[in-house]
Protein backbone atom coordinates (compact mmCIF):
# COMPACT_ATOMS: atom_id res chain seq x y z
CA UNK A 1 0.00 0.00 0.00
CA UNK A 2 1.36 3.39 -0.97
CA UNK A 3 0.27 6.92 -0.16
CA UNK A 4 1.16 9.83 -2.44
CA UNK A 5 2.07 13.08 -0.70
CA UNK A 6 3.43 16.44 -1.78
CA UNK A 7 6.42 15.92 0.46
CA UNK A 8 7.80 12.47 1.08
CA UNK A 9 6.79 11.96 4.72
CA UNK A 10 6.48 9.02 7.05
CA UNK A 11 5.01 9.19 10.57
CA UNK A 12 7.29 8.18 13.41
CA UNK A 13 6.46 6.53 16.69
CA UNK A 14 8.53 5.88 19.80
CA UNK A 15 11.09 3.74 17.98
CA UNK A 16 13.16 6.34 16.13
CA UNK A 17 16.76 5.26 16.66
CA UNK A 18 18.26 2.00 17.81
CA UNK A 19 21.81 0.93 18.20
CA UNK A 20 23.26 -2.48 19.01
CA UNK A 21 21.35 -4.39 21.67
CA UNK A 22 18.57 -1.78 21.83
CA UNK A 23 17.61 -2.60 18.26
CA UNK A 24 17.69 -6.32 19.02
CA UNK A 25 15.28 -5.80 21.93
CA UNK A 26 12.97 -3.80 19.67
CA UNK A 27 13.01 -6.47 16.98
CA UNK A 28 11.84 -9.05 19.51
CA UNK A 29 8.66 -6.99 19.90
CA UNK A 30 8.14 -6.07 16.25
CA UNK A 31 9.22 -9.17 14.32
CA UNK A 32 7.20 -12.37 14.71
CA UNK A 33 9.51 -15.32 15.27
CA UNK A 34 12.63 -13.18 15.70
CA UNK A 35 15.15 -15.21 17.69
CA UNK A 36 18.35 -13.87 19.19
CA UNK A 37 21.35 -16.17 19.43
CA UNK A 38 22.64 -19.08 17.42
CA UNK A 39 25.32 -16.85 16.00
CA UNK A 40 28.74 -17.95 14.85
CA UNK A 41 30.96 -15.62 16.84
CA UNK A 42 33.41 -15.43 13.95
CA UNK A 43 30.93 -13.41 11.90
CA UNK A 44 31.94 -10.31 13.82
CA UNK A 45 35.71 -10.43 14.16
CA UNK A 46 37.47 -8.93 17.17
CA UNK A 47 39.02 -5.60 16.21
CA UNK A 48 42.49 -6.87 17.14
CA UNK A 49 42.22 -9.68 14.61
CA UNK A 50 42.16 -7.29 11.68
CA UNK A 51 45.53 -5.72 12.48
CA UNK A 52 47.40 -8.04 10.12
CA UNK A 53 45.23 -6.75 7.28
CA UNK A 54 46.59 -3.24 7.78
CA UNK A 55 49.88 -4.23 6.23
CA UNK A 56 48.69 -6.30 3.29
CA UNK A 57 51.20 -5.91 0.55
CA UNK A 58 54.12 -5.45 2.96
CA UNK A 59 55.52 -8.96 2.85
CA UNK A 60 57.89 -8.62 5.78
CA UNK A 61 55.03 -8.14 8.26
CA UNK A 62 52.16 -9.94 6.59
CA UNK A 63 50.86 -13.35 7.63
CA UNK A 64 50.08 -15.48 4.60
CA UNK A 65 46.28 -15.87 4.17
CA UNK A 66 46.76 -19.48 3.11
CA UNK A 67 48.97 -20.21 6.14
CA UNK A 68 46.43 -18.63 8.49
CA UNK A 69 43.62 -20.77 7.09
CA UNK A 70 45.64 -23.98 7.19
CA UNK A 71 46.40 -23.43 10.88
CA UNK A 72 42.63 -23.42 11.40
CA UNK A 73 42.14 -26.54 9.29
CA UNK A 74 40.27 -24.59 6.58
CA UNK A 75 40.86 -24.31 2.87
CA UNK A 76 41.01 -20.72 1.63
CA UNK A 77 38.15 -19.69 -0.65
CA UNK A 78 40.57 -17.58 -2.63
CA UNK A 79 42.59 -17.63 -5.78
CA UNK A 80 46.10 -16.22 -5.91
CA UNK A 81 46.09 -12.57 -6.93
CA UNK A 82 48.15 -11.29 -9.81
CA UNK A 83 50.16 -8.13 -9.29
CA UNK A 84 49.75 -5.25 -11.66
CA UNK A 85 52.87 -3.81 -13.24
CA UNK A 86 51.52 -0.25 -13.00
CA UNK A 87 52.01 1.10 -9.44
CA UNK A 88 49.76 3.93 -8.31
CA UNK A 89 52.52 5.79 -6.52
CA UNK A 90 51.07 9.13 -7.60
CA UNK A 91 48.16 8.58 -5.22
CA UNK A 92 50.33 9.67 -2.32
CA UNK A 93 50.48 13.14 -3.86
CA UNK A 94 46.83 13.76 -4.61
CA UNK A 95 43.59 14.05 -2.70
CA UNK A 96 42.72 16.17 0.29
CA UNK A 97 42.73 13.94 3.38
CA UNK A 98 40.24 15.18 5.92
CA UNK A 99 40.68 14.39 9.59
CA UNK A 100 38.04 13.21 12.00
CA UNK A 101 35.80 10.21 12.32
CA UNK A 102 32.42 9.48 10.85
CA UNK A 103 29.48 11.03 12.65
CA UNK A 104 28.51 8.98 15.73
CA UNK A 105 25.06 7.48 15.93
CA UNK A 106 22.63 9.93 17.53
CA UNK A 107 20.18 8.55 20.06
CA UNK A 108 16.99 10.59 20.17
CA UNK A 109 15.04 11.24 23.32
CA UNK A 110 11.31 11.65 23.77
CA UNK A 111 11.83 15.39 24.10
CA UNK A 112 13.56 15.98 20.77
CA UNK A 113 11.91 13.14 18.85
CA UNK A 114 10.88 14.27 15.34
CA UNK A 115 7.23 14.00 14.39
CA UNK A 116 8.01 12.43 11.05
CA UNK A 117 10.64 11.43 8.52
CA UNK A 118 10.51 13.46 5.34
CA UNK A 119 12.45 14.24 2.20
CA UNK A 120 12.32 17.65 0.55
CA UNK A 121 13.86 18.38 -2.84
CA UNK A 122 16.55 21.06 -2.40
CA UNK A 123 18.71 20.83 -5.54
CA UNK A 124 18.37 19.62 -9.14
CA UNK A 125 20.94 19.37 -11.91
CA UNK A 126 20.53 18.03 -15.45
CA UNK A 127 23.88 16.27 -15.81
CA UNK A 128 23.47 14.54 -19.18
CA UNK A 129 20.96 13.48 -21.81
CA UNK A 130 21.64 9.77 -21.34
CA UNK A 131 21.26 7.32 -18.47
CA UNK A 132 22.94 7.84 -15.09
CA UNK A 133 23.75 4.66 -13.16
CA UNK A 134 25.61 5.51 -9.94
CA UNK A 135 26.37 8.23 -7.41
CA UNK A 136 28.19 8.66 -4.09
CA UNK A 137 28.95 11.44 -1.57
CA UNK A 138 32.34 11.93 0.00
CA UNK A 139 32.39 11.60 3.79
CA UNK A 140 31.87 15.30 4.47
CA UNK A 141 29.10 15.64 1.88
CA UNK A 142 31.03 18.31 -0.04
CA UNK A 143 31.25 16.41 -3.34
CA UNK A 144 28.84 14.17 -5.20
CA UNK A 145 30.38 11.88 -7.83
CA UNK A 146 28.18 10.55 -10.66
CA UNK A 147 28.64 8.08 -13.51
CA UNK A 148 26.67 6.23 -16.16
CA UNK A 149 26.29 5.65 -19.89
CA UNK A 150 28.12 8.90 -20.62
CA UNK A 151 31.47 7.15 -19.83
CA UNK A 152 32.59 10.32 -18.02
CA UNK A 153 32.84 10.97 -14.29
CA UNK A 154 30.81 13.98 -13.19
CA UNK A 155 31.56 15.86 -9.98
CA UNK A 156 29.21 18.29 -8.28
CA UNK A 157 30.99 20.57 -5.80
CA UNK A 158 28.00 21.22 -3.57
CA UNK A 159 29.67 23.98 -1.58
CA UNK A 160 30.47 26.11 -4.63
CA UNK A 161 27.74 24.71 -6.89
CA UNK A 162 30.34 23.86 -9.54
CA UNK A 163 30.00 20.96 -11.99
CA UNK A 164 33.03 19.33 -13.64
CA UNK A 165 33.73 16.19 -15.65
CA UNK A 166 36.60 13.82 -16.37
CA UNK A 167 37.27 11.26 -19.08
CA UNK A 168 39.12 7.97 -18.82
CA UNK A 169 36.72 5.06 -19.33
CA UNK A 170 35.77 3.74 -22.75
CA UNK A 171 32.47 2.15 -21.71
CA UNK A 172 29.69 2.71 -19.15
CA UNK A 173 30.64 3.55 -15.57
CA UNK A 174 28.81 1.05 -13.37
CA UNK A 175 29.73 2.15 -9.82
CA UNK A 176 31.48 5.02 -8.05
CA UNK A 177 32.77 5.21 -4.45
CA UNK A 178 34.81 7.72 -2.42
CA UNK A 179 37.68 6.76 -0.18
CA UNK A 180 36.73 7.62 3.45
CA UNK A 181 37.65 11.14 4.57
CA UNK A 182 39.17 12.00 1.20
CA UNK A 183 38.47 13.53 -2.18
CA UNK A 184 39.89 10.40 -3.87
CA UNK A 185 37.30 8.12 -5.47
CA UNK A 186 37.19 4.99 -7.63
CA UNK A 187 35.03 3.98 -10.58
CA UNK A 188 34.23 0.60 -12.12
CA UNK A 189 33.35 0.16 -15.77
CA UNK A 190 32.24 -2.23 -18.47
CA UNK A 191 35.69 -1.64 -20.01
CA UNK A 192 37.03 -4.17 -17.39
CA UNK A 193 38.98 -1.60 -15.37
CA UNK A 194 38.81 0.29 -12.08
CA UNK A 195 40.10 3.85 -12.24
CA UNK A 196 41.20 6.22 -9.47
CA UNK A 197 40.30 9.93 -9.48
CA UNK A 198 40.49 13.05 -7.34
CA UNK A 199 37.32 15.13 -7.03
CA UNK A 200 39.45 18.21 -6.44
CA UNK A 201 40.94 17.71 -9.94
CA UNK A 202 38.66 15.31 -11.82
CA UNK A 203 39.85 16.04 -15.34
CA UNK A 204 42.35 13.15 -15.29
CA UNK A 205 42.78 9.71 -13.76
CA UNK A 206 45.53 8.88 -11.27
CA UNK A 207 45.72 5.16 -11.91
CA UNK A 208 44.05 2.15 -13.42
CA UNK A 209 43.57 -1.28 -11.82
CA UNK A 210 43.55 -4.02 -14.43
CA UNK A 211 43.11 -7.76 -14.07
CA UNK A 212 39.40 -8.46 -14.37
CA UNK A 213 38.40 -10.56 -17.38
CA UNK A 214 34.79 -9.39 -17.41
CA UNK A 215 32.79 -6.18 -17.10
CA UNK A 216 33.55 -4.63 -13.70
CA UNK A 217 30.19 -4.03 -12.04
CA UNK A 218 31.00 -2.55 -8.62
CA UNK A 219 33.74 -1.09 -6.44
CA UNK A 220 34.15 -0.06 -2.79
CA UNK A 221 36.84 1.24 -0.42
CA UNK A 222 37.58 -0.33 2.96
CA UNK A 223 36.26 1.99 5.72
CA UNK A 224 39.49 2.15 7.76
CA UNK A 225 42.30 0.77 5.58
CA UNK A 226 41.97 3.37 2.90
CA UNK A 227 44.46 1.79 0.49
CA UNK A 228 42.38 -1.39 0.28
CA UNK A 229 39.72 -1.49 -2.42
CA UNK A 230 37.41 -4.25 -3.66
CA UNK A 231 35.70 -4.80 -7.01
CA UNK A 232 33.59 -7.47 -8.70
CA UNK A 233 32.86 -8.41 -12.29
CA UNK A 234 30.04 -10.11 -14.18
CA UNK A 235 32.03 -13.39 -14.15
CA UNK A 236 31.33 -13.63 -10.39
CA UNK A 237 34.90 -12.71 -9.47
CA UNK A 238 35.72 -10.44 -6.51
CA UNK A 239 39.14 -8.84 -6.21
CA UNK A 240 40.83 -7.01 -3.36
CA UNK A 241 43.48 -4.48 -4.34
CA UNK A 242 46.21 -2.46 -2.68
CA UNK A 243 45.95 0.82 -4.56
CA UNK A 244 49.34 2.02 -3.29
CA UNK A 245 51.15 -0.39 -5.59
CA UNK A 246 48.28 -1.31 -7.91
CA UNK A 247 48.36 -5.00 -7.04
CA UNK A 248 45.58 -7.54 -6.72
CA UNK A 249 45.86 -9.05 -3.23
CA UNK A 250 43.44 -11.93 -3.59
CA UNK A 251 40.47 -13.19 -5.56
CA UNK A 252 37.17 -14.56 -4.26
CA UNK A 253 34.20 -16.08 -6.04
CA UNK A 254 30.65 -14.99 -5.28
CA UNK A 255 29.90 -11.45 -6.45
CA UNK A 256 28.67 -10.30 -9.86
CA UNK A 257 26.51 -7.23 -9.17
CA UNK A 258 27.66 -5.27 -6.12
CA UNK A 259 30.29 -5.30 -3.34
CA UNK A 260 30.09 -3.35 -0.07
CA UNK A 261 32.38 -3.41 2.97
CA UNK A 262 30.82 -3.50 6.43
CA UNK A 263 30.83 0.06 7.86
CA UNK A 264 33.17 1.16 10.64
CA UNK A 265 35.36 -1.97 11.02
CA UNK A 266 35.19 -3.44 7.54
CA UNK A 267 35.63 -6.98 8.88
CA UNK A 268 32.91 -8.27 6.57
CA UNK A 269 32.41 -7.90 2.84
CA UNK A 270 28.94 -8.27 1.32
CA UNK A 271 28.58 -9.23 -2.33
CA UNK A 272 25.46 -9.83 -4.38
CA UNK A 273 25.11 -12.28 -7.22
CA UNK A 274 21.77 -13.04 -8.86
CA UNK A 275 19.26 -13.35 -5.98
CA UNK A 276 21.62 -13.98 -3.04
CA UNK A 277 23.99 -12.00 -0.81
CA UNK A 278 27.27 -13.55 0.31
CA UNK A 279 28.95 -12.35 3.51
CA UNK A 280 32.72 -12.93 3.60
CA UNK A 281 35.06 -12.63 6.58
CA UNK A 282 37.93 -10.57 5.20
CA UNK A 283 40.52 -11.63 7.79
CA UNK A 284 40.08 -15.35 7.08
CA UNK A 285 38.79 -15.05 3.48
CA UNK A 286 35.95 -17.44 4.30
CA UNK A 287 32.25 -17.35 3.47
CA UNK A 288 30.34 -16.74 6.71
CA UNK A 289 26.71 -16.27 5.68
CA UNK A 290 24.50 -16.57 2.62
CA UNK A 291 21.34 -14.45 2.65
CA UNK A 292 18.59 -15.93 0.46
CA UNK A 293 14.95 -15.06 -0.13
CA UNK A 294 14.69 -12.80 -3.17
CA UNK A 295 12.93 -14.25 -6.21
CA UNK A 296 14.45 -11.83 -8.71
CA UNK A 297 18.02 -10.61 -9.09
CA UNK A 298 19.21 -8.24 -6.37
CA UNK A 299 19.67 -4.80 -7.93
CA UNK A 300 20.92 -2.84 -4.92
CA UNK A 301 22.05 -3.43 -1.34
CA UNK A 302 23.32 -1.28 1.52
CA UNK A 303 24.52 -1.62 5.12
CA UNK A 304 23.01 0.30 8.00
CA UNK A 305 25.47 2.49 9.88
CA UNK A 306 25.97 -0.04 12.70
CA UNK A 307 27.10 -2.81 10.36
CA UNK A 308 24.62 -5.23 11.91
CA UNK A 309 21.84 -4.92 9.33
CA UNK A 310 21.61 -4.87 5.54
CA UNK A 311 18.90 -3.88 3.10
CA UNK A 312 18.50 -5.30 -0.39
CA UNK A 313 16.04 -4.75 -3.21
CA UNK A 314 15.01 -6.73 -6.26
CA UNK A 315 12.22 -5.64 -8.57
CA UNK A 316 9.67 -7.65 -6.58
CA UNK A 317 10.61 -6.87 -2.96
CA UNK A 318 12.77 -5.10 -0.39
CA UNK A 319 14.31 -6.99 2.52
CA UNK A 320 16.07 -5.97 5.72
CA UNK A 321 18.44 -8.58 7.12
CA UNK A 322 20.06 -9.28 10.46
CA UNK A 323 23.53 -10.19 9.26
CA UNK A 324 24.46 -11.75 12.58
CA UNK A 325 21.46 -14.08 12.52
CA UNK A 326 21.46 -14.53 8.77
CA UNK A 327 17.70 -13.95 8.61
CA UNK A 328 15.29 -11.50 7.03
CA UNK A 329 13.60 -9.40 9.73
CA UNK A 330 11.40 -7.23 7.48
CA UNK A 331 10.06 -7.60 3.94
CA UNK A 332 8.10 -5.29 1.64
CA UNK A 333 6.56 -6.36 -1.68
CA UNK A 334 6.87 -3.85 -4.49
CA UNK A 335 3.48 -3.92 -6.22
CA UNK A 336 3.19 -1.84 -9.40
CA UNK A 337 6.35 0.23 -8.88
CA UNK A 338 9.27 -2.16 -9.32
CA UNK A 339 12.14 -1.53 -6.91
CA UNK A 340 15.52 -0.54 -8.39
CA UNK A 341 17.76 1.02 -5.73
CA UNK A 342 17.94 1.64 -1.99
CA UNK A 343 19.74 3.56 0.74
CA UNK A 344 19.11 3.98 4.44
CA UNK A 345 17.78 7.33 5.60
CA UNK A 346 20.78 9.21 7.10
CA UNK A 347 18.93 10.11 10.30
CA UNK A 348 16.66 7.18 11.09
CA UNK A 349 17.85 3.62 11.60
CA UNK A 350 16.13 0.99 9.42
CA UNK A 351 14.10 3.63 7.57
CA UNK A 352 14.77 2.82 3.92
CA UNK A 353 14.56 5.08 0.87
CA UNK A 354 13.75 3.03 -2.24
CA UNK A 355 14.08 4.14 -5.85
CA UNK A 356 11.61 2.83 -8.44
CA UNK A 357 10.55 3.89 -11.92
CA UNK A 358 10.08 7.66 -11.35
CA UNK A 359 9.14 7.37 -7.66
CA UNK A 360 10.98 7.56 -4.37
CA UNK A 361 9.39 5.50 -1.62
CA UNK A 362 10.10 5.87 2.09
CA UNK A 363 9.63 2.79 4.24
CA UNK A 364 9.93 2.65 8.02
CA UNK A 365 9.28 -1.00 8.94
CA UNK A 366 9.36 -0.25 12.67
CA UNK A 367 6.14 1.77 12.27
CA UNK A 368 4.40 0.54 9.14
CA UNK A 369 5.61 -2.83 7.93
CA UNK A 370 3.62 -2.79 4.67
CA UNK A 371 3.11 0.92 3.95
CA UNK A 372 5.38 3.41 2.20
CA UNK A 373 5.13 7.10 1.45
CA UNK A 374 5.58 7.73 -2.27
CA UNK A 375 6.68 10.78 -4.26
CA UNK A 376 7.26 11.31 -7.98
CA UNK A 377 10.91 12.37 -8.14
CA UNK A 378 12.20 11.68 -11.69
CA UNK A 379 11.00 10.98 -15.22
CA UNK A 380 12.82 7.65 -15.48
CA UNK A 381 14.15 4.74 -13.45
CA UNK A 382 15.91 5.89 -10.27
CA UNK A 383 19.04 3.82 -10.70
CA UNK A 384 21.11 4.86 -7.67
CA UNK A 385 20.77 6.55 -4.28
CA UNK A 386 23.43 7.85 -1.89
CA UNK A 387 23.27 9.29 1.61
CA UNK A 388 25.37 11.93 3.36
CA UNK A 389 25.30 11.50 7.11
CA UNK A 390 27.34 14.68 7.53
CA UNK A 391 24.73 16.81 5.75
CA UNK A 392 21.62 14.70 6.40
CA UNK A 393 20.89 14.55 2.67
CA UNK A 394 20.17 11.93 0.01
CA UNK A 395 21.10 12.06 -3.67
CA UNK A 396 19.21 10.34 -6.47
CA UNK A 397 20.23 9.81 -10.09
CA UNK A 398 18.05 8.48 -12.87
CA UNK A 399 17.92 7.25 -16.43
CA UNK A 400 16.41 10.68 -17.17
CA UNK A 401 19.89 12.22 -16.77
CA UNK A 402 19.00 14.28 -13.69
CA UNK A 403 20.76 14.42 -10.33
CA UNK A 404 18.63 15.54 -7.38
CA UNK A 405 19.40 16.25 -3.72
CA UNK A 406 16.88 15.66 -0.93
CA UNK A 407 16.95 16.87 2.65
UniProtKB/TrEMBL annotation:
> Known Pfam families for this protein?
WD40 (PF00400)
InterPro entries, per the entry = LEUNIG-like, WD40/YVTN_repeat-like_dom_sf, WD40_repeat_CS, WD40_repeat_dom_sf, WD40_rpt
Q: Gene3D superfamilies recorded for this chain?
A: YVTN repeat-like/Quinoprotein amine dehydrogenase
Decide whether keyword Repeat is in the record: yes
Query: What are the leading ranks of the lineage?
Result: Eukaryota, Viridiplantae, Streptophyta, Embryophyta, Tracheophyta
Where the WD repeats fall, as residue ranges, is: 166-198, 209-251, 375-407
The protein's GO terms of the molecular function aspect are: transcription corepressor activity
Ranges for the region named Disordered are: 59-90
The record ties this protein, via SUPFAM superfamilies, to: WD40 repeat-like
Superkingdom of the source?
Eukaryota
Q: Which organism is it from?
A: Solanum lycopersicum (Tomato)
From the Swiss-Prot or TrEMBL record, give the protein name: Uncharacterized protein
Ordered alphabetically, the record's keywords are:
Repeat, WD repeat
